[in-house]
Amino acid sequence: MRSNVPASLILSVALLGLAGLVLTVGFAPGPVSAQMLMNGTGATFPYPIYSKWFDEYIKVDPSVRFNYQSIGSGGGIRQIMERTVDFGASDGPMTDEQLTKAPGELFHIPTVLGAVVPTYKLPGDPKLRFTSDLLAEIFLGKITKWNDPRIVAVNPGVALPDRPIIVVHRSDGSGTTYIWTDYLAKVSKEWEQRVGRGTSVNWPVGLGGKGNEGVAGQVKSTPGAIGYVELAYATKNNLPAAAIRNQAGKFVEPSIQSTTAAAAGAAKNMPSDFRVSLTNPPGEDAYPIASFTWLLVYKDQPHQVKGQALVKFLWWAIHDGQKYTSNLLYAPLPSQVVSQIEAKVKQITYQGKPLLAAR
Amino acid sequence: MKARVRRGINAVMEWLTAMSALVVVLPLILILVFLVYQGASALNLDFFIHLPKPVGEPGGGMANAIVGTLILIGLASCLGLPLGILGGVYLAESRDRRLPWVIRFLADVLNGVPSIVIGIFAYTVVVLPLRRFSALAGGFALAVIMLPIVLRTTEELVRLVPASLREAALALGIPEWKVILRVVLPTARAGIITGVMVSIARIAGETAPLLFTAFGNRFWHQGLLQPIAALPLQIFAYAIAPYDDWHRQAWAGALVLIVMIFSSSLIARIVTKGRYSGVR
Amino acid sequence: MRRLAHSTRVTGGWGDHLFRLLIRAAALILLVIVLGLVIVMIRAAFPSIRAFGWSFLFTSRWDPVAEKFGALPLIYGTIVSSVLALLIAVPLGIGAAVYLSEVAPPWISPPISFLIELLAAVPSVVYGLWGIFILAPWLRTQVQPALGATLGFLPLFQGPPYGVGMLAAGLILAIMVVPFIIAVSREVLLAVPNAQREAALALGATRWETTRLAVLRYARSGLMGAVLLGLGRSLGETMAVTMVIGNRPEISASLFAPGYTMASMIANEFAEATSDLYLSALIEVGLLLFVVTVIVNALARLLVWSVGGAVKAVRE
């Protein structure tokens, strides 16, 4: 018998040892042990503030870790319906059909307010403003050059280059898309008929980017591009956020104040399930494309401990968590809405018993 | 045709083929060099020790992704290696009439299936019934990818073991199964390990099947039934994001991944150096 | 290759029986996995098959809002990007393989072949990374404007220079597939019996003439097989393509336009298909991809085997 070559013998022992080690490590929890992992997925729109919250919340409750993967609102809706995650997140409200199909009653819990802004990349970084018609025409593919007279008319004094407009939209199922198309459908009959509103639509023109991250990334690296992203994505990447003319006729910049103004009217007539659209509001200082973003949770939680951790987090988010919003340019929840949400969170149960003790 | 013309054509054609080789090899080398340069400049100790930071905050690392990839490889190996090696032995040693042919054909089919399709399979078969994304699902998907490679390599290596060795052992009265386990496999060991290293190199870089199985995790893994981070997943997520710091980290991650893969391939080569001349 | 054929009777004690059972079980598990894959996918794709029938292959509209799905743009994108890749990779790849196996001095061939094997192992996502940050900007700022200015009268080169798009996808696929084609072609060429070459040389042929008449002609079907294997590989390529193709399910004559392939659409939209029909349509796309790659690969292997002795190369 040929003598066993020591090299291959050592190697096979090493491989087996490695596999064993890796598995032992795998079965045991990670370096910081004995923590509960809550998994959530969904919207990229609030991802900047959610990731901040989940990072801060570790100090509040070190026994829980919230793992959030931002894959788009469509994913959030899908995965919570499949129950592969503990909570979902979406800025496009679920449709009645989706709610009926879900295996249990789902709550929409509003967390913050955000604005969807048109962002663009042009040499010289000019400050632009748009009307609702302009946006619809650009995204319908009817205006194709930056120095189109219609754009020039709205932006007097700005030197617009003779470049093609490169439209960037979302390639994945997106609540941001829902908010954007909801607005365009309200202000443009043609858009409503040709394209409609939804988390995923049949875009007339443009490139697809994955997530708010992908759109921002694409716009940032493509001179002549225009896309729509949540405000935080524009500012964090030094991309401009254009002003839009609102229903009252005034050009409004996206900001915390104008977003809050957009929600003012809705706060008075909030439906009990919180599924409300804030686009194209009547207020004078209101930004036209703002929206709530929701966390999707089951009314009846399947696990007691996890359910408790979840409601505790929700309570923290709608109160203490709101102080992190301004830094990231999200608007905090209006106070009337907060008390309504409190009532809703108290309705979350485990086997019929409310999880949140009376406060 | 005149001899000079023919020689001329010969020279031109030889030159053209050499140029093809150059045109092919040069850009590839440039890509690698660029990768090493970008990745190395972004690598620091933080990268290997720390977890990812919240969006937009610089710093942080991919420690969990590196460990996650190792765990997924380990898991895939535990699922795929025994099946692959035993299956390979079956193909080489079995006296069945038609089943080996079918198995061989199916293994080749499986080898050519795009990994994203295998991801769909793993989602339907592991994620949905368990109602969760998990390292297990990711490991399963990777095991399915690695299986045909290990299978065919093992089969071939086992066949290469000289019959005289087997016959000698059998003549000594050793039962067949012992012959295979104690004589044949150890002799073929180096080649089988090569197949294993090659398949590990292949699955270490797979991203698509992990997208909706392992799912990704911003924190350390929490056992095999929870989502887990993986290096290729993290690279992908960072690459398409707009943050410059994340781009740097993506390059660093790519470098680490390449080093892992090349090491596997190199080890495979070294182990079989000169042992199976004439075969490869 | 010799089995223990002389012991034709199934002898041996329970140890042998058990062992034989064990290895047969392992093989059967593989069978179950592959069959399971096919069955699972057909079942999951069935609602979409029933809803759209054959028109799924011929309709252009991918509309999740109206729930109308047609895979034609995806099929188009997959084919175009792969064909473009092969147009670039095949001449270069086979040329390089010829160089390595016939022309190169003996000290060049091993290190270069080794290098090419290593490069074949580079993962898709790394190529994609390079594609986003190096290739796409280069195309957008240098190549596409130049092509548009000179050849812009052709519909192939019209449209704004996005950088990302079909051209980027085709180029990156070419780069990924070429090491593969070289490796397999080289094995095929090496498998050509030396007698063929010697015969040609004995008749006074130059090296190129030998290659052309004796080697290439003999290896023709094997080389076609290598090309088909490259095609099979590029059809299923997901990550690098997703990162540079522009993600737009639309058919356009221009190479500058964004597109979509079957694999990259699944990668982008699978986790979030909000309705059952949507998910089913995506799985039907996956099924389509599966069927196409199986056919291409099967054909490829038949062709490569016909040259004989090149079985090893095929296991990639």
Quick tags:
heterotrimer, A: 359 residues, alpha/beta, D-Maltodextrin-Binding Protein, domain 2, 13 helices, 13 strands, C: mainly alpha, MetI-like fold, 2 strands, flat, disordered C terminus
Short note summarizing the structure:
By secondary structure, chain A is an alpha/beta fold.
Protein architecture, described:
The complex is a heterotrimer of chains A (359), B (280) and C (316). Chain A has 359 residues and is of the alpha/beta class. Chain A has helices spanning 6-27, 47-60, 73-82, 96-101, 132-140, 149-154, 175-187, 189-194, 211-221, 231-236, 256-268, 304-318, 335-345, and strands spanning 36-42, 64-70, 87-90, 106-120, 129-130, 166-170, 207-209, 225-230, 243-245, 251-252, 290-298, 349-350, 353-354. In chain A, a hairpin with a 5-residue loop joins strand 9 (243-245) and strand 10. In chain A, helix 12 (304-318) runs antiparallel to helix 13. Chain B starts with a helix and ends in a 9-residue tail after the last helix. The relative contact order of chain B is 0.14. Chain B has a single domain, classed as MetI-like (MetI-like fold, Orthogonal Bundle). Chain C contains 10 helices and 2 strands; from the N terminus they run αββααααααααα. The radius of gyration of chain C is 24 Å and the shape is flat. At the B-C interface, helix 1, helix 3, helix 4, helix 5 and helix 6 of B face helix 1, helix 2, helix 3, helix 4 and helix 5 of C.
Strand order of the largest sheet of chain C: 1-2
How much strand of chain C? under 5%
CATH topology of chain C: MetI-like fold
How many beta-strand runs of chain A? 13
Question: What is the correct CATH architecture of the largest domain in chain A?
Answer: 3-Layer(aba) Sandwich
Give the ordered list of helices and strands of chain C: HEEHHHHHHHHH
Largest interface between protein chains, with number of residues from each side:
B-C, 101 and 97 residues
Draw up the topology in text.
The complex is a heterotrimer of chains A (about 350), B (about 280) and C (about 325).
Chain A: H1 6-27, E1 36-42, H2 47-60, E2 64-70, H3 73-82, E3 87-90, H4 96-101, E4 106-120, E5 129-130, H5 132-140, H6 149-154, E6 166-170, H7 175-187, H8 189-194, E7 207-209, H9 211-221, E8 225-230, H10 231-236, E9 243-245, E10 251-252, H11 256-268, E11 290-298, H12 304-318, H13 335-345, E12 349-350, E13 353-354
Helix pairs in contact in A: 12-13
Chain B: H1 3-42, H2 45-49, H3 63-93, H4 99-112, H5 115-130, H6 135-160, H7 163-171, H8 176-204, H9 231-239, H10 244-271
Chain C: H1 14-52, E1 62-63, E2 68-69, H2 72-103, H3 109-120, H4 124-151, H5 166-190, H6 194-202, H7 207-236, H8 239-244, H9 262-269, H10 276-305
Antiparallel strand pairs in C: 1-2
Helix pairs in contact in C: 1-10, 2-5, 2-7, 3-5, 5-7, 6-7, 7-10, 9-10
